[in-house]
Amino acid sequence: MSEQTVEELVADVFSRACTSREALEHVTGKWSLLALSALAESPHRFGELRRRIEGVSEKMLAQGLQTLERDGWVHREVRSTIPPHVEYRLTEAGAELVPHLLGLIDFVEGRMPAVRAARAAADRARLPR
Amino acid sequence: MSEQTVEELVADVFSRACTSREALEHVTGKWSLLALSALAESPHRFGELRRRIEGVSEKMLAQGLQTLERDGWVHREVRSTIPPHVEYRLTEAGAELVPHLLGLIDFVEGRMPAVRAARAAADRARLPR
DNA sequence: GTATGGCACTAACCATCGGTTAGTACTGCT
DNA sequence: AGCAGTACTAACCGATGGTTAGTGCCATAC
In this complex, do B97 and A112 lie within 8 Å of one another by their Cβ atoms? Predict the structure, then answer.
């Protein structure tokens, strides 16, 4: 066994010990997913992202960006100015991740009529049971 | 304007009014994502899913399955037997959704070494700031 | 007889996290 | 003076995730 631990070798999402579970949760988080999508368009400053993503609070945005930065999907660049000037851009890894997310988003968006129909049918049948 | 409402026409994830946001949250939810992945392998009974996905509680599993069923991604089939016999399988929509999810999962799994390295570097640099 | 297991949930409860609101410090404008 | 811009964070409280117990029937074991 090399320097890798057992934990590092587990890459099975069904296993409780799978470390990619947490990483998946991060990138699919409600606000993170939207931040990544916005950054796919172009680098953004904090406030630009805030305005781009309707409904996100500064707190939730900051939190998500911090996580994305720590995991290596997003690069944060600080300029020592007043007022603060912080810019976020996708890392190389982030740029490779985003098409997967956008594919999913596009797919679900395209399926919304069916989702709505399914919900109406389910509610008509009075689910939950 | 036909019978569709403005809300139904909004399919922009950046908009607060976008109805696909909720649907996205559902399919990317921690346990739902895993349930969908397991059902991609084969239909499962409730207990089979529970055992397949380490770490999920019956409560969280039932909750996720209910949501997936209501949105139309999963079909739930009940047999009137004692003990209960409930089987879950992907709907046609679900079967089209799942490759997107699996692609994302595979990608993130493959990137875990880089994610771990990024975290180590970030923590060494003492993030959060 | 009792106890336990199987099945698929749900109720009750509590810990954790999401979201709201207020605050920070500097500059510039009204 | 107040307000706006900038990018966060602290304090607080409500919502949701997760734990534990419970349901009712049948079968098996002691």
Answer: no
> Which of the nucleotides in strand D have any atom less than 7 Å away from a protein CB atom?
5-11, 17-22, 24-26
CB A3 within 8 A of CB B120: no
- Architecture of the CATH domain A22-124: Orthogonal Bundle (1.10)
Closest listed residue to residue B101, CA positions, set B57, B48, B40: B40
| Domain B6-124, second-level architecture | Orthogonal Bundle (1.10)
Nearest-neighbour CA in chain B from A29: distance (Å): 8
ipTM of this predicted structure: 0.89
- Residue A66 neighbours by CB distance under 10 Å: 17
CB contact residues (below 8 A), chain A span 11-70, against chain B:
11, 13-17, 19-21, 23-25, 27-28, 30, 33-34, 37-38, 52-55, 66, 69-70
Residue range B25-37, pLDDT digits in tens: 999 999 999 999 9
